[in-house]
Each structure stands twice: as C-alpha cells, then as structure tokens.
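Postdoc handover notes: sequence design on the structure in folder B. Input tokens:
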C-alpha cells in the first residue's frame, strides 16, 4: 500500500469513531473525487482550524469574525469568550458541565437552562484506570498540577479538562452550583465521580453545591440525542 494512502488513512483514524476500515474508505472515496474536491476539503479544514477558537471560559469552539479579531487583538488581556459566556444576563451562579460541544448545543436548543457551561472534552474512558484522589485531599493536593493531569494523560490521547475545571471553579466565586450533565453510561458515571472528588474542597470551603441531571435520561442515554422534554425533566429533577 502506498505510503501516502497510509498516511492519510492514519490521519482519519485519529478522528472519533473512525476505525482502520472506515479510514481507508474515506481515502478511496476522496481519490474517486476530482482534484477540486480535495482542494476545497483541505482548505475548509485549514480555515476552520484557523478561524475557530476555543472559548477561554467554557471551551466551546466558535468562529472569530474580523471585528472580533480587531477587538480582541486591541487588548491582549481580553479573554476570548463565546456568546454564552459574554452574555451578562445569564445566571452566573450555575455552571453546567457537559462532556462535549454537541451536548452543550443540544441543551442550548432546549432553552431550559440559562446559566453558564463548561465542556470537559477528551475521551472519558481514559479516566477508568485512574485512582481517585484521596477523599481527604485538601485544596493544595487538588491544586497540584501533576496529581490532576498526570493520571488523566497516563494513556495518552485527548486531554480531559479536569485541571481547567478545578481552576474555573476556584477562580469564579460566583459559582454556587455545579450541575453534572454527563451521559447516563459508565463513562459519564466515572467522570461524575472524579469531578465530585476534585471539587470537594469547594463544597467544604464555600458550600458549593454539586448536583447532577435527574432521572429522565434512561440508562445509556446520551445528552446529545435527548429531546427538549427529557432535558427539561433532567434539569428540573437535578439532585
Ligand atoms: Zn464560553
């Protein structure tokens, strides 16, 4: 097999849900198309990667427009914030944690939540082999960069933003309640347990409330596919 084909296939395989067979299918499908298609595809990818930035607060990926570029470049210290994080009318005391962008989008679409968000990102399954921090862990223990991130990155791969979540809650004293909107499966459960441990110092120090989406999301259900009523129920019945 040609080296170039192998290279492209292995690049596709880095995307979620793409195995070796699917990767090869993509490669051969692209080879069937004309040159213009390949050129457009690669330029779209390049453009998206350049124009789209991650919100400095919630990590949502959004497109910077030219005016944003000028405004944000004029003040280096101005954080790049998405429209939700910039919106002063949203409830600052609520922070809803989701696993992926698409979960946030689906919850926004339901219009039953008006607080702020945090996207955990990464592949939750990487958390499985990790020993949870000791339950007595104080702020300084949890604040130790190595303790939080080294375990998570042990197996390589995408990074889960546990460290960033810790910093966000630590620095934003407006947050009174953290709501876990994890998928109702093993990965979601594991992430929930881990977040509870990491944020425990704030529960003790400033009475931070940690709740989770209530029943309504059946076992194995994904936030991404949940309809408006399900999300509304899960939010109202949080505990
Ligand atoms: Zn944001």
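Designed sequence:
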């Amino acid at each position: 097999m040609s080296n170039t084909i192998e290279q492209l296939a292995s690049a596709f395989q880095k995307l979620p849900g793409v195995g070796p067979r699917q990767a090869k299918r993509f490669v051969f499908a692209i080879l069937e198309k004309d040159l213009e298609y390949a050129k457009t595809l690669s330029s779209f990818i390049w453009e998206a990667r350049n124009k789209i930035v991650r919100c400095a607060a919630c990590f949502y990926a959004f497109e910077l427009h030219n005016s944003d570029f000028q405004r944000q470049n004029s003040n280096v210290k101005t954080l790049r914030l998405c429209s939700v994080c910039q919106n002063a009318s949203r409830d600052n005391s609520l922070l809803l944690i989701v696993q992926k962008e698409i979960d946030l989008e689906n919850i926004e679409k339901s219009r039953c939540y008006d607080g702020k968000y945090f996207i955990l990102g990464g592949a939750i399954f990487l958390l499985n082999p990790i020993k949870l921090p000791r339950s007595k862990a104080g702020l300084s223990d949890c604040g130790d960069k190595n303790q939080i991130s080294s375990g998570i990155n042990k197996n390589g791969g995408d990074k889960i933003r546990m460290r960033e979540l810790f910093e966000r809650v630590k620095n934003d004293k407006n947050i009174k309640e953290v709501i876990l909107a994890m998928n109702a499966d093993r990965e979601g459960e594991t992430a929930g347990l881990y977040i509870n441990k990491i944020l425990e110092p704030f529960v003790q120090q400033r009475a931070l409330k940690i709740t989770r989406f209530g029943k309504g999301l059946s076992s194995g259900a994904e936030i991404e596919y949940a309809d408006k009523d399900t999300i509304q129920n899960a939010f109202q019945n949080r505990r």
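Context for whoever picks this up: DSSP finds eleven helices and six strands in the chain. Don't rerun without checking with the PI first.
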